[in-house]
Amino acid sequence: MPTRQNPQVDASSAAPEKSVDGQLPYPDGVGHRVIWSYTIPFILFHAAIPLAFIPWFFSWSGLLLLPIAHFFFDWIGIGLCYHRTLTHRGLLLPKWLERIFVVFGLCNLMDSPARWVAIHRKHHQHADEQPDPHSPHVTLWWGHMGWLIQENQSMSNIDFYHKYAPDVLRDPFYFVIEKYKLWIFVYLAQAVILTTIGFLFGWWWTGQYSGGIQLGASWLLWGVVLRTLFSWHATFAVNSITHMWGYRNYETRDDSTNHWLVAMLTGGEGWHNNHHAYPVSAAHGHRWWELDPTYWNIQILKFFGLAKEVKVHEMDDEH
Ligand SMILES: [Zn+2]
Ligand SMILES: [Zn+2]
Questions:
Q1: Rounded to the nearest whole angstrom, what is the distance from the C-alpha of residue 52 to the centroid of ligand 1?
Q2: Coil/strand/helix, residue 30
Q3: Judging by DSSP bridges, how do beta strands 30-34 and 150-152 pair with one another?
Q4: What is the pTM of this model?
Q5: What ligand has the least distance to the C-alpha of 237?
Q6: What is the distance in A from the centroid of ligand 1 to the CA of 248?
């Protein structure tokens, strides 16, 4: 748990600037209360990591399931849909496809689309200033995960959603997901489905019930639990690492950076300085070698007429 001084400050003295040593105060509204609904899954999922070293849980199909599911759920669901489509409107998808991709996004246990969008838009509006929900210039831990497990009252009222994500909540499907917390059930459903398929496949392959149990457990561990952890830390690294380390193509007013490792884990989201400079652009890689697989996927969708109004900024040749 992060330790810190009580951030209650007189509004008149609340300055968004960093202190002399470059550290940022906690956002207004941050209290001491722990958000257990986030903290408990974080603890349980991390506690499962040692199981990865037990041979009984290992299978090559389970291992392969991790990157495949990460591609669909994180690269498409979060990067392409939550981020580039819903948050920044860098492209337009047919409604049915957008909703399928949102369901993919829900399979990461990474919040509902409305909440994700609202938090991220606030981040862009105040990046690396005090109201930024997750600047690593508070502490690296805060920017990575701390902000998720400690209450922030400025993001827990209805006004926050109305201000930052009214367009998302106007969609009845996303509204229902929000209102009834359906994202929990979608996440559980994909876990049950993948585990069951693993079980049936293992049973059929080995001809033994125990073989089914073993492969089902393997798919649950590698394709669901470890894959979710991978997706969390890759996405959280965009908030933490790419506001701390890396290089910059643009002199933005925040401290965003480009980082190749974060970009490769997230399908291009780690070209984050480019993204802060041109948030609406559906392409995050601006130099030819800044590989941006999510943009390639957008181009494929565009080729088939499934992505329209794709907005792109590319760097001038002289850079
Ligand atoms: Zn950022
Ligand atoms: Zn963004």
A1: 32
A2: strand
A3: antiparallel
A4: 0.90
A5: 1
A6: 13
Ligand that lies nearest to the alpha carbon of residue 119, given by its number in the listed order: 2
| pLDDT at residue 11 is higher than 90 | no
Residue 268: closest CA among 312, 234, 229 = 234
Closest-lying ligand to the alpha carbon of 258? Answer: 1
Mean of the per-residue pLDDT values for the chain? 91
Lowest mean pLDDT among 76-80, 291-295, 314-318: 314-318
Q: Which amino acid is at 192?
A: V
207 CA distance to ligand 2 middle (Å): 49
54 band by pLDDT with thresholds 50, 70 and 90 = very high
Q: Tell me how far apart the alpha carbons of residues 190 and 188 are, in angstroms, rounded to a whole number.
A: 6
Q: How many whole angstroms from 254 Cα to the centroid of ligand 1?
A: 8
SS3 assignment, position 214: helix
**67 band by pLDDT with thresholds 50, 70 and 90:** very high
Task: Report residue 225 CA to chain centroid gap.
Answer: 16
From residue 291, give the alpha-carbon distance in Å to each of 69, 259, 267, 300: 20, 11, 8, 15
135 CA to middle of ligand 1, Å?
8
Can you say how many angstroms the Cα of residue 11 is from the centroid of all Cα atoms in its chain?
31
